[in-house]
């Protein structure tokens, strides 16, 4: 089945069979509107996380290829930035339609390379598609400001203009959504773009390029290079790249923010997280437990907004056994198997790291009330599976609390009051997301007012804002000034030019130069 899918993608020009590598296809670069074979000798294997079979090989693009991609974006910028805004809008109208029609194909690629379930992979595409849909309203989003008669016969107006060549560097966990947070916003505003997708699952991004061609986007407006740290450093240093959007881990995010900023670029870095869900004893028990389980274990916990830490307040702690029962009932299997709740984690390395963090929790005194290590999935014995795992009695000085686990592991803490819960969360260095479960409006209001986290849910476990707002993670989860998509995304990808003009009906001739400021 996977082979058939790959054949399909080969036919579509997304990947090519490389004869010297028997049946393993290679992923191409996308430069100036064409899918091209890399000349590199350095390749990265992409494994299907459910089987660990190699599904494609990704090139570490050569310096010359990366320069070509930037040159192509720079050249395309000349015409693209001058194209009428209505023409750019038309590309987005067509693009959103084409993505919607290809959601299932995109989802299949995501499941093969990333491991999440097919339905969750469609959600991955949908959340990116919503950004493209929002980009269709660029005619309102890019409006400038005017103020006539600011002084006698003097008007001031400002435009929002593109920056030039922009770049995007993306993580493995949302192979469609996160590239779609970046290049559609950049290009609809008149920029061009160079994307470096995650080297662990580039397939969906390549399909998105194919669809972009179909939507009539001119060659060079978006280009894709592949690689790891060297490609990232190239992007940080290349003087023709004016802005970098990054989503991924803390280590890479800080490196890119610092190196890119030092080179005078705008950088927005969305990084790691530790999202707490506060469970009040007055919450709707049934809904809360279901929401907690869904948000902790969905996508095998590999979401930056996964609700990975539950804070039970007072008597809510007594719901733990029910929580365990619900988590235990989840079905773990390969993502394409019907009825699967969540699939494998991305790699054997990630699996080991997660298992080590679970063990560290036990060693430091936490109780493992549900242990998913050692899970075997019949038919997929080589896959990177971990079953749902719950650690209780966790303390804030434990490694499993301090580090982002990014796996199907829910850790739980217990406090006596809402104030204690708020204090605990505010002391955590991350500020990506949080949620409270309660039926009391005053409790919810107090929580939203006092919590120092950028995205807050009230009876909403994963409060990711839709694209008319922006993705507003804060503190340790974000570096930069303007967030992704929404108005802040527009600000990130534009610079303001302000024109002050004077037109008088009859010319006034000044007898001498005015050397002092007007008073
Ligand atoms: P990652 O940092 O390993 O990789 C992200 C990108 O950075 C990739 O393209 C990779 O090639 C590059 N990269 C990796 N290590 C690098 C290094 N040392 N130097 C330079 N570049 C490097 O992240 P990942 O494992 O793919 O993704 C998971 C992480 O992303 C988690 O921490 C998760 O919380 C975070 N994430 C955050 C958000 C958000 O919006 N805050 C969204 C999704 C994922």
TrEMBL record:
It comes from Zootermopsis nevadensis (Dampwood termite). Pfam families: Aldedh. Probable malonate and methylmalonate semialdehyde dehydrogenase involved in the catabolism of valine, thymine, and compounds catabolized by way of beta-alanine, including uracil and cytidine. Transmembrane segments: none annotated. GO terms for molecular function: methylmalonate-semialdehyde dehydrogenase (acylating, NAD) activity. Homotetramer. It is found in: Mitochondrion. Its main location: mitochondrion. Residues 35-499 form the Aldehyde dehydrogenase domain. Its EC number is 1.2.1.27. It catalyses: 3-oxopropanoate + NAD(+) + CoA + H2O = hydrogencarbonate + acetyl-CoA + NADH + H(+); 2-methyl-3-oxopropanoate + NAD(+) + CoA + H2O = propanoyl-CoA + hydrogencarbonate + NADH + H(+). It comes from the Eukaryota. This is Probable methylmalonate-semialdehyde/malonate-semialdehyde dehydrogenase [acylating], mitochondrial. PANTHER family: MALONATE-SEMIALDEHYDE DEHYDROGENASE (PTHR43866), METHYLMALONATE-SEMIALDEHYDE DEHYDROGENASE [ACYLATING], MITOCHONDRIAL (PTHR43866:SF3).
């Amino acid at each position: 089945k996977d082979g058939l899918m790959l054949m399909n993608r080969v036919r579509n020009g997304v990947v090519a069979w490389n004869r010297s590598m028997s049946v393993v296809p290679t992923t191409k670069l996308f430069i100036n509107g064409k899918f091209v074979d890399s000349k590199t000798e350095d390749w990265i294997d992409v494994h299907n996380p459910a089987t660990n079979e190699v599904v494609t090989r990704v090139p570490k693009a050569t310096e010359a290829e990366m320069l070509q991609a930037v040159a192509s974006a720079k050249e395309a910028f000349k015409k693209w930035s001058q194209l009428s805004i209505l023409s750019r809008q038309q590309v987005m109208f067509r693009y959103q339609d084409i993505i919607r029609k290809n959601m299932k194909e995109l989802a299949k690629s995501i499941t093969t390379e990333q491991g999440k379930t097919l339905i969750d992979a469609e959600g991955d595409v949908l959340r990116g598609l919503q950004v493209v849909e929002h980009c269709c309203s660029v005619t309102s989003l890019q409006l400038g400001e005017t103020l006539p008669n600011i002084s006698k016969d003097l008007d001031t107006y400002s435009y929002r203009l593109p920056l030039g060549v922009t770049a995007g560097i993306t993580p493995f966990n949302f192979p469609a959504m996160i590239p779609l947070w970046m290049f559609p916003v950049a290009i609809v505003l008149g920029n061009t773009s160079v994307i470096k997708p995650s080297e662990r699952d580039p397939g969906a991004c390549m399909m998105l390029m194919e669809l972009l061609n179909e939507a009539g986007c001119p060659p060079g407006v978006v280009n894709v290079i592949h690689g790891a740290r060297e490609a990232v450093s190239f992007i940080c240093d290349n003087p023709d790249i004016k802005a970098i959007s990054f989503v991924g881990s803390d280590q890479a995010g800080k490196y890119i923010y610092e190196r890119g900023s030092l080179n005078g670029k705008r950088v927005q870095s969305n990084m790691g997280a530790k999202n707490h869900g506060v469970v009040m004893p007055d919450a709707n028990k049934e809904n809360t437990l279901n929401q907690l389980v869904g948000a902790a274990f969905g996508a095998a916990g590999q979401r930056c907004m996964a609700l990975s830490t539950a804070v039970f307040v007072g008597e809510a702690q007594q719901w733990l056994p029910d929580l365990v029962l619900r988590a235990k009932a989840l079905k773990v299997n390969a993502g394409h198997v019907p009825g699967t709740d969540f699939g494998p984690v991305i790699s054997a390395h990630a699996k080991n790291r997660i298992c080590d963090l679970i063990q560290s929790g036990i060693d430091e005194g936490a109780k493992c009330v549900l242990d998913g290590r050692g899970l075997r999935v019949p038919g997929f014995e080589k896959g990177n599976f971990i079953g749902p795992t719950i650690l209780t009695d966790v303390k804030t000085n434990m490694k499993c609390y301090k580090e982002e686990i990014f796996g199907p592991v829910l850790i739980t803490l217990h406090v006596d009051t809402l104030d204690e819960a708020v204090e605990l969360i505010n002391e955590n260095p991350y500020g990506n997301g949080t949620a409270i479960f309660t039926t009391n409006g005053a409790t919810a209001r107090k929580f939203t007012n006092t919590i120092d986290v950028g995205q807050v849910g009230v009876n909403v476990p994963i409060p990711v804002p839709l694209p008319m707002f922006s993705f507003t993670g804060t503190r340790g989860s974000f570096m930069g000034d303007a967030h992704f998509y929404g108005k802040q995304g527009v600000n990130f990808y534009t610079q303001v030019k302000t024109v002050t003009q004077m037109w008088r009906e009859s010319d006034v001739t000044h007898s001498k130069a005015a050397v002092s400021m007007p008073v």
